[in-house]
Amino acid sequence: MKLLLIRHGESEANFANYWTGWLDVNLTNKGTQQAREAGIRIKKAGVSIDVAFESVLKRSIKTAQLVLEEADASFVPEIKTWRLNERHYGALVGRNKTKMTQQFGEEQVKKWRRGFNEVPPLVKINQFDRRYDSLDSRLIPKGESLNMTSRRVMILWQDQIVPFLKEGKTVLVCGHGNSLRALIQYLEAVPEEQVDRIKVPNATPILYCFGSDFTIKSKTEL
């Protein structure tokens, strides 16, 4: 069983250094190129993708589609789900990280960014478009800790990703820094206090090979 994890390519928010969360920003030219190069590396490694999971944010969607194109897998099913969205950073969304560090201090900003149970200041009202209209409003947060993000990602893992893996499908999951960090923590049984050490660089494919009991047989950065 093979699982490919990849964080989206560099986004406009990554470049400008502000919290993005569920804000729908585009890839930079660099991010687009990173995604293409990731697909080329996957193809060179001889990995054949059977199905792709993406968030409903265009930086994830575009990255996945570029990866699939370069990996000769544009024809495979693509499943878009809000459960793979980046962590919702609440009232921090759109705020520059450097300026917030100056205002609130490095320690507090580090907690907001990497603390497992640290909830950011909540936004009063979400300003979202119709992509979330079909969701029960109780599912849509006004801000999340990494722990809260992990819980929604785990539902996706158990209900949708695992069945494909059990069928012998090679699954691509194109997510975001924190949604993938949550999944990696689960797969590798990383303690809560060490989650901040999990690094998920942009557009770097991570290939997991599992045994029949989902023990990790190998992990490779392509």
Automatic annotation (TrEMBL):
<feature type="binding site">
    <location>
        <begin position="86"/>
        <end position="89"/>
    </location>
    <ligand>
        <name>substrate</name>
    </ligand>
</feature>
<feature type="active site" description="Tele-phosphohistidine intermediate">
    <location>
        <position position="8"/>
    </location>
</feature>
<feature type="binding site">
    <location>
        <position position="97"/>
    </location>
    <ligand>
        <name>substrate</name>
    </ligand>
</feature>
<feature type="binding site">
    <location>
        <begin position="113"/>
        <end position="114"/>
    </location>
    <ligand>
        <name>substrate</name>
    </ligand>
</feature>
<feature type="active site" description="Proton donor/acceptor">
    <location>
        <position position="86"/>
    </location>
</feature>
<dbReference type="InterPro" id="IPR005952">
    <property type="entry name" value="Phosphogly_mut1"/>
</dbReference>
<feature type="binding site">
    <location>
        <begin position="20"/>
        <end position="21"/>
    </location>
    <ligand>
        <name>substrate</name>
    </ligand>
</feature>
<dbReference type="GO" id="GO:0004619">
    <property type="term" value="F:phosphoglycerate mutase activity"/>
</dbReference>
<feature type="site" description="Transition state stabilizer">
    <location>
        <position position="176"/>
    </location>
</feature>
<comment type="similarity">
    <text>Belongs to the phosphoglycerate mutase family. BPG-dependent PGAM subfamily.</text>
</comment>
<dbReference type="InterPro" id="IPR029033">
    <property type="entry name" value="His_PPase_superfam"/>
</dbReference>
<feature type="binding site">
    <location>
        <begin position="177"/>
        <end position="178"/>
    </location>
    <ligand>
        <name>substrate</name>
    </ligand>
</feature>
<comment type="function">
    <text>Catalyzes the interconversion of 2-phosphoglycerate and 3-phosphoglycerate.</text>
</comment>
<keyword id="KW-0324">Glycolysis</keyword>
<keyword id="KW-0413">Isomerase</keyword>
<keyword id="KW-0312">Gluconeogenesis</keyword>
<feature type="binding site">
    <location>
        <position position="59"/>
    </location>
    <ligand>
        <name>substrate</name>
    </ligand>
</feature>
<dbReference type="InterPro" id="IPR001345">
    <property type="entry name" value="PG/BPGM_mutase_AS"/>
</dbReference>
<dbReference type="GO" id="GO:0006094">
    <property type="term" value="P:gluconeogenesis"/>
</dbReference>
<comment type="pathway">
    <text>Carbohydrate degradation; glycolysis; pyruvate from D-glyceraldehyde 3-phosphate: step 3/5.</text>
</comment>
<protein>
    <recommendedName>
        <fullName>2,3-bisphosphoglycerate-dependent phosphoglycerate mutase</fullName>
        <ecNumber>5.4.2.11</ecNumber>
    </recommendedName>
</protein>
<dbReference type="InterPro" id="IPR013078">
    <property type="entry name" value="His_Pase_superF_clade-1"/>
</dbReference>
<dbReference type="Pfam" id="PF00300">
    <property type="entry name" value="His_Phos_1"/>
</dbReference>
<dbReference type="GO" id="GO:0006096">
    <property type="term" value="P:glycolytic process"/>
</dbReference>
<feature type="binding site">
    <location>
        <begin position="7"/>
        <end position="14"/>
    </location>
    <ligand>
        <name>substrate</name>
    </ligand>
</feature>
